[in-house]
Amino acid sequence: MSAGGEARWLLVGNSRWHWAADQGCERRYWSERPEPNLPQQPQGWAAVGQVSAQLEPGRRVTLAQVPLLDAPPWLGIDRALAGYQAWCRSGTSVLVADAGTALSLTRVDGQGRFAGGRLMAGAALQLQALHRGTQGLPALPPEQGLLLAAADAEAWPSDTKAAMACGVLQGLAGALQRAAMQLAAHDSGVQFWLTGGDGPVLAPLLQQTEPGTARPLWRFDPGLCLDGLARVASLS
């Protein structure tokens, strides 16, 4: 904990470090490139990406510490934390979409058991693949502003870069909606959660329903993994 009493939590991702900081009764979240000099040790940390030698091993939260029943040993810690936190928040079965470097879908049943999932390339990886796998399609930096602009653009862009971004984002949103409809047809109580760096871009593209219902309503929570990390660390 820092001199100002701020507790920090860190998830080491594939391309970024994801932070949460507790300030009084509030928790703020941000992401950044890995820092060459760690400003302070987090209260707890977990990793799916390359681990920095600066991080104290004793503060690491591992999959074995997450009270997610039937979690297989290969399950990513980020998926386990997000799934467990969403289940704790919902009190029912959940489907969690984590839209980062990869787009992961993680199911947790009503008893808090891991119930499978799906994986596909995230927006940045898909855009890179389009550029590298073709002769004519340009490189498209996966900057948040560009993706946000694409999300707000016309449905059928004439510009190549906008068409690439729009196609990728609409494809991801379509995959989420289809998964949600498939699951809702068999589980009337399931709740749907969205998190991850591309979450703000995808959230407006997801068809909102519930209240009167035809079900899927995705709840966007950017801090789901980090809140799960803080929860699990407090249990240790």
Task: List key phrases describing it.
Nucleotidyltransferase, domain 5, alpha/beta, four-stranded mixed beta sheet, 236 residues
Would you write up a description of this structure?
The chain is α/β, with parallel strands linked by helices and 236 residues long. The protein folds into 2 domains: 7-62, no CATH class; 63-122 and 161-232, Nucleotidyltransferase, domain 5. The protein is built from 6 helices and 9 strands. A 5-stranded mixed beta sheet has the order 7-6-5-8-9, with helices on both faces. Helix 1 (77-90) packs across helix 6 (224-235), helix 2 (123-132) packs across helix 4 and helix 3 crosses helix 4. The longest helix has 25 residues, at 160-184. It is globular. It starts with 6 loop residues before the first strand and ends with a helix. The mean pLDDT is 88.
Write the SSE topology:
Blueprint: E1 7-12, E2 17-23, E3 26-32, E4 44-47, H1 77-90, E5 94-99, E6 102-108, E7 114-121, H2 123-132, H3 144-152, H4 160-184, E8 191-195, H5 199-202, E9 218-220, H6 224-235
Parallel strand pairs: 1-4, 5-8, 8-9
Antiparallel strand pairs: 1-2, 2-3, 5-6, 6-7
Q: Average pLDDT, to the nearest integer?
A: 88
What percent strand? Answer: 15-25%
- What is the name of the CATH class of the largest domain? Alpha Beta
CATH topology of the largest domain, by name, is Nucleotidyltransferase, domain 5
Provide the domain count. Answer: 2
Uncertain runs with pLDDT below 50, 5 residues or more? none
State the helix count: 6
Radius of gyration: 18 Å
Q: Which class do the helix and strand fractions yield?
A: alpha/beta
Write the CATH architecture name of the largest domain. Answer: 2-Layer Sandwich
Strand segment count: 9
Q: Shape, please?
A: globular
Main sheet makeup: 5 strands, mixed
Cα distance, first to last residue? Answer: 17 Å
Helix and strand run: EEEEHEEEHHHEHEH
Identify the CATH homologous superfamily of the largest domain: ATPase, nucleotide binding domain
| Portion in helices | 25-40%
